[in-house]
Amino acid sequence: MPNIFITRHIPQAGYDRLAAAFGPDAISSFDEDRATPRDVLFKCVAGADAIFAILTEKMDAEVFDAAGPQLKVVANMAVGYDNVDVPAATERGIPITNTPGVLTETTADLTWALILAAARRTGEAERFVRAGNWHSWSPTLLLGVDVYDKTLGIYGMGRIGKAVARRAAGFGMKVLYHNRTRLSTEEEQALNATLVDFPTLLKESDILSPHCPLTPDTRHAFSTNEFTAMKDSVVFINTTRGPVVDEAALAQALQNHSIFSAGIDVFEEEPTIHPELLKCENAVLLPHLGSASEATRGRMATIAADNIIARLNGDTPPNCINAEVL
Ligand code: DGY
What we know:
By secondary structure, this protein is α/β, with parallel strands linked by helices. It has helices at 12-22, 38-45, 61-67, 86-91, 104-120, 122-130, 159-168, 185-191, 198-204, 224-229, 247-255, 275-278, 294-312, and strands spanning 4-6, 27-29, 50-53, 73-76, 96-97, 151-155, 174-178, 193-195, 207-210, 235-238, 261-264, 283-285. (2R)-2,3-dihydroxypropanoic acid (DGY) is lined by residues 78-80, 103, 290-291.
């Protein structure tokens, strides 16, 4: 019987899948809804054949070594894997897997929830109503910026970027994108999208949303210079990874009104948020909810479980990031 460790409380579907494959006794978990403390993690992974990992836990050399040489797979329940030291895993011959595809549409939906909320100031407006401050309809109350007919800028046109761009058609928007590779002519036409250089993206977007992975190249891709180059009416969104944005610079741009507003789901040091950003009325802040629908989180947990099952049964895990170790 294999030894599978789950680093925190997960959707039941993932647990059931593993239990059906190997029996409930094969599974142990830190079954709490909080990140596993590091010292607890080291003890719990000892002897594990598989780790079912969540992005709140760093999966690095110390964890792999604490697990031991029998560790056969680390399945991350997320499409992003910046919490995993992939080179350290590869060095030890440990396959790392992720959960691509299933969260694309759900994350694109949440991106749009933030676009509309930040453009039309719905967070501020809700706080205003609940505080008992609404006394009459007013021609000048809480005026936002329009979304329809505007230009959506997308930095990183992968699966989620395209899903966000597709939704823009319903708002009659033009799409500009900046990406390492150009989409096919058919895709560009279908998305009404034009490839532009980064300065043009910054200068011409009315709504700007990065959808790149976090890499050394994209860390702080948006900082003071970039916010300064944007329109002062821009709505800036981030549902990818916090460190893609320099949070202090974002807070300053919001406070100076050198940008109009922001809708932010991910932060540099989650769950800590830069204190200056917390003060900004013109920011809508969410607790990393991009993929947080019941159906999608259930699918993510099932896919992570399937990757573990495949590996422990001697098959190729379907979503291996470092396939060279197999
Ligand atoms: C991911 O899968 O990378 C997401 O950030 C989790 O919602």
